[in-house]
Amino acid sequence: MFSGVKAGLVSADVLRREQQELRRHERNNKHLEEESRYSETVFRDKSGRKRDLAQERLEQRQKAEAQSERDEQYAKWGKGLAQGRQQQQNVEDAIKEMQKPLARYIDDQDLDRMLREQEREGDPMAELIKKRKAKENKEKKEKPRYNGPAPPLNRFNIWPGHRWDGVDRSNGFEQQRFARLANKKAVQELAYKWSVEDM
């Protein structure tokens, strides 16, 4: 049988001997039972080395935190940094406006500044102000631009660099592309006119 005793009809001596054998076997294995009861499970990797689960959990948590931080940053970038700043500025302006009284008087500095910054059509001083602002902006370092004859068109509308000498060194692909597009548009227009001619 599974327990180690004989099956079927057995005498009392055989039964007593089997029980003593079982007790002795249990006593011999008692210390193994005690050791295994309070021992911790040892986890090993494929090569057979012991794994430090606490360290692995810590590393995994750090990776997850770094990943969530990166995802948060990409989400912020995806929404647009300039749009986020503009939205924050709008909220601050709205809070600032809510704190002001409802009635705005003639001596309100914010209202005065806002009205002065508005450009009105037919304002004789607007041109002078634009020139002053352009001069102030010109003082700031500006990237040089190409100042020659009009360059040939390209499909991305990219302006040539400021050092371009004006010589078209392309293989003619852009011109062929524009010619194909123009031809396709002309054929479509001609087909449309032909289809509605008898109406």
UniProtKB/TrEMBL annotation:
Residues 21-74, 114-123, 136-145 have a biased composition (Basic and acidic residues). GO terms for biological process: mRNA splicing, via spliceosome. Pfam families: Bud13. GO terms for cellular component: RES complex; U2-type spliceosomal complex. Residues 21-93, 114-157 are annotated as: Disordered. InterPro entries: Bud13 (IPR018609), CWC26_splicing_factor (IPR051112). GO terms for molecular function: RNA binding. Belongs to the CWC26 family. This is BUD13 homolog. It comes from Glareola pratincola (Collared pratincole).
